[in-house]
Amino acid sequence: MADQLLAERSAFAPWTPIKHANIAIEVRENLTLASVAAARGKASSVSDAVHAAYGVACPLQPTCGHGSGSAGPLSIMWAGPDQWLAFAERTGDRDLERELKAQLGSMVAIVDQTDARVFVRVSGPR
Q1: Percent of residues, the chain, with pLDDT higher than 70
Q2: Per-residue b or e along 49-72, where b marks 16 or more CB atoms closer than 10 Å to that residue's CB
Q3: CA–CA separation, 117 vs 115, rounded Å?
Q4: Cα(104)–Cα(33) distance, integer angstroms
Q5: Confidence check: pLDDT of 101 > 50
Q6: CB-based burial of residue 88 (10 Å sphere; 0-12 exposed, 13-18 middle, 19+ buried)?
Q7: 125 Rama sector, left if φ>0, alpha if ψ -120 to 50, beta otherwise
Q8: How far apart are the first and last CA of the chain?
């Protein structure tokens, strides 16, 4: 039997963005994502470090924050108590997991989520 190779392919590969007067739906596949979980008792320190590096604090309730700092734009979304999903534009070889580990060290557990998730932006007047 011939060897079969698996090829990377988006679940949205045959799909095209929808743009109408009242609604627009687009897939954001050009992002790098990482889940961030603070070590016990370190959530405040993690939020302070993220704010110092990126200009955005880690939300403490379900919401999303946006900011930018010396390392470039970053958004961070609440994912649970002391847990967040960080995401940013994937430019060049940017690896958010590696970047955040360098900034936050042993205060957090970080796992790359880039190939596990996709963002769908829905916008319009309503």
Answers
A1: 90
A2: bbbebbbbbbeeeeeebeeeeebe
A3: 6
A4: 16
A5: yes
A6: buried
A7: alpha
A8: 54
Q: How far apart are CA 99 and CA 70, in angstroms?
A: 12
Separation of alpha carbons 41 and 91, rounded Å: 33
Is the torsion defined by CA of 10, 11, 15, 16 positive or negative? negative
Phi, psi torsion values for 75, nearest 5 degrees:
-120, 150
Handedness of CA 8, 10, 11, 14 (dihedral sign): negative
**119 pLDDT above the threshold of 90:** no
**Residue whose pair of structure tokens reads 């590096």 in the numeric block:** 53
Mean pLDDT of 38-47: 95
Nearest CA among 122, 115, 121, 120 for reference residue 96: 115
| Helices and strands, counts by H and E, the chain | 2, 8
Q: CB 124: neighbour CB atoms within 10 A?
A: 11
Whole-model pTM?
Answer: 0.77
Computed over every residue of the chain, the mean pLDDT equals 85
